[in-house]
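Repro:
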Amino acid sequence: MRRTVARAAWLLLAASSRLLRRPKFARRQRLILRHGVLEYEKQDFFRLHNVTSVREAFRREAASIATRHPSLLDLGGGDGSNFKDIFDGIEGFPGSYSILDIIERPGVDNAVVGDACKPIVTDRRFDVTFTNNALEHMPEPFMVAQNMYDLLKANGLVMASTVFACHQHASPDDYWRFTDSGLRYVFEKAGFETIEFGYDISQRRREKLGGHIPESAPLIDRKGGWQERWFVFYIGRKPGTAAERPDNGKSNGQPPNERQSSLGNGQTK
């Protein structure tokens, strides 16, 4: 029995060795060493996942509701510059713009200091809740998604982008990396109906300070940092019925045990 198993293993090894010496397979082996992924796996990735531009996906949804002059809340929006880079030039979007950020932003209009990882108590409701490259810095992403759901009007729109692959960048800390399915799960768990989700790899070899990293460069730099930069995004809608949450309203209106963030009653700083 042992002799039979050993002979079968030897034959399999010999066959594999001959196979790998063929030009096509030798090329794939070189691809493994250079890029860490086989060509056919790349093709499968594009077949199985939505790969597009985050900016274009967001602008498309924004343009579809711009005539309504929607109100928008930007969670983790900082000074608002990232928002402007994405949506600049879309007339009527947004009709009103507010920022919720954990860091005080002196001189920034319509900015409120608050923690999106804590239950938010307010009577205000928005047409759009938005977050861009901030969710990886928030320790409680499920709570953030729930707040984005609760702060929306019925049929309201959520747009979120974050990172799938990126160097560590604390601001003030760095907690998470999301796959497209993982990000969808976070928001569907909050009650959203999915419109679109996927990856943006347009900047995968772009350095933070500008310029492109050659394809032949190693994936890990001399300091141990990850050179790939992939973004992941989610677009969803709050169901129009809006009478009940997915948990039948058990957490709706319940007094939280922790400190709450507040957006006031229509007032912002």
